Amino acid sequence: MSETPNTPTADGGNLRPTGKRQRAGEATTARATSAQKAPEVVETRRNPFSAIVDFLRGVVSEMGKVIWPTGREMVNYTIIVLLFLVFTTALVGGVDWVSNFALQKIFH
Known about the structure:
- The longest helix is centred in the C-terminal third of the chain and has 37 residues, at 71-107.
- The protein is 55% helix and 0% strand.
- By secondary structure, the protein is an all-alpha fold.
- It has three helices and no strands.
- The chain crosses the membrane at residues 77-98.
- It is found in: Cell membrane; Membrane.
């Protein structure tokens, strides 16, 4: 008779569970394992106008790296936010109404 994982052994102990394990010294996320460039370091210029131009170039560069949502995703996110807003407003309004009703009954 063979033993399956996590079944008790003759001495009462359990076998170790099977599955993927992290090896010592290795990253656990895909982001950490991918070879990414270090962020660019730009030296600050003394001329404030050049510094502003460098800043704006950096902003444009970073905006190019943004993963923008599709139109369908934006509609879904907007609907989710609006539903959450309605739920939260109803919850706060309901708690306010119940507490006001209770206080009116207690003090009048």
